Amino acid sequence: MSQALFTKERHIRYFLRCLKTFLPDLYTSNDSNRMLLAFFTVAGLDLLGVLESKTTREERQGYVEWIYHCQVPSGGFRGFTGTDFGVERRTQDNEAWDPANVPSTFFALVILLILGDDLSRVKRADCLRWLSKMQRTNGSFGEVLGPDDTVEGGGDLRFCCFAAGTRYLLRGRYSTGVEGIRDIDVDKLVTFIESCQAYEGGMAEGPYCEAHSGHTYCAISALTFLDRLSRDSDRVPLISPDSKQYESLVRWLVARQTTELGEEEDEEDFDEDGQVNGAAQDLTQSVEGLNLDGSIGKLPDLTPPSEESLRWAGFNGRCNKYADTCYSFWNGATLDLLGKISLVGAAGNRRYLLEKTQHLVGGFGKDAGEPPDLLHSYFAMVSLALQGEEGLDSVDPAICASYRTVQHLHTLPWWQDAR
């Protein structure tokens, strides 16, 4: 079989189309998530190493100005400009109509860093004050502040991740310039995250829920952000090798790699009422003769996987699910954060992404045969970058952006002020 190829030039054209022309109408419902779409687009071109060569300085400055237009006067960033009704009209009574958004704030900061901005116009103190208000009593974080500073929106691990990431970006190693600003309750946040580990090892959106790879990444990314700024020698068990929590988490993540791609489905014989022919009769007969004695021996033999089918091995997000492009990132990046990226079947994952979901026009689809979209396109490239794919820059798995972006972050004053 021929070597799978990463079609870099097609991906460059795909991301440029997304940046400089109208997105397909299916994105209309995501209008309030423009900051996220902007992140995928700008970060995608940066990961491909062509952001500066394919955009002008004036264009990049225009993107910077748009992001600052999304900064809320009282701290944080909104998801798009559609809720901005003007500073002159903004009061304490109506500011909940135009709230800062926790995920959008994190993405706005990362985009600014990718574009080379020094964050000097970011209202750091106001943003950190606002961030501390977003924490609930159980340690989790919400999405927006409602009337009377009520915490509203989801409360799962996604918002914990973005809150911890925002704290990491703005507080820095030495908290220069924000020494008197109340910090979030780190211990409560860690306790909430730990409570989300499910019985099989993965992390769920909340306590006693089903483990999910996306929430697992968010949990470990949040703990990584907290650990990077911690001066405490006692590490959280979830990210501490040899602990039971760590070992069960790693086993669950590795078990998410699968050759079940969901490309073909068995056709059923349906009758005029939409029921599977013969199902009722078979069920009746089975119930009447329900007896386990000898039944095991009558089970059909399972056909072992062929060598051909084992060539493609993507990842799923939950037990008994098909592979999906984005989970190559959620699982692979989490294993990288845990120092276990070597456990990924890299060759199978690469072939799955490049031969099954890489699209002819550029970008990647959700699964085989699907059209490309920004989320799956970016996460596919990050997954490949973590495996050292030629043509892609190296990536920090926690910030989910190039190491060049992280290096720029660490040149800022609150990272450079040695003490």
Automatic annotation (TrEMBL):
Pfam families for the chain: Prenyltrans
KW DNA repair (keyword) present: no
Keyword match Metal-binding: yes
Cofactor names: Zn(2+)
Superkingdom per UniProt: Eukaryota
UniProt record similarity statement: Belongs to the protein prenyltransferase subunit beta family.
Record-linked PANTHER family: GERANYLGERANYL TRANSFERASE TYPE BETA SUBUNIT (PTHR11774), GERANYLGERANYL TRANSFERASE TYPE-1 SUBUNIT BETA (PTHR11774:SF4)
Name used for this protein in its record: Geranylgeranyl transferase beta subunit
Organism: Aspergillus lucknowensis
Keywords: Metal-binding, Prenyltransferase, Repeat, Transferase, Zinc
SUPFAM superfamilies listed in its UniProt record: Terpenoid cyclases/Protein prenyltransferases
Domain Prenyltransferase alpha-alpha toroid: 6-400
MF terms in GO: transferase activity
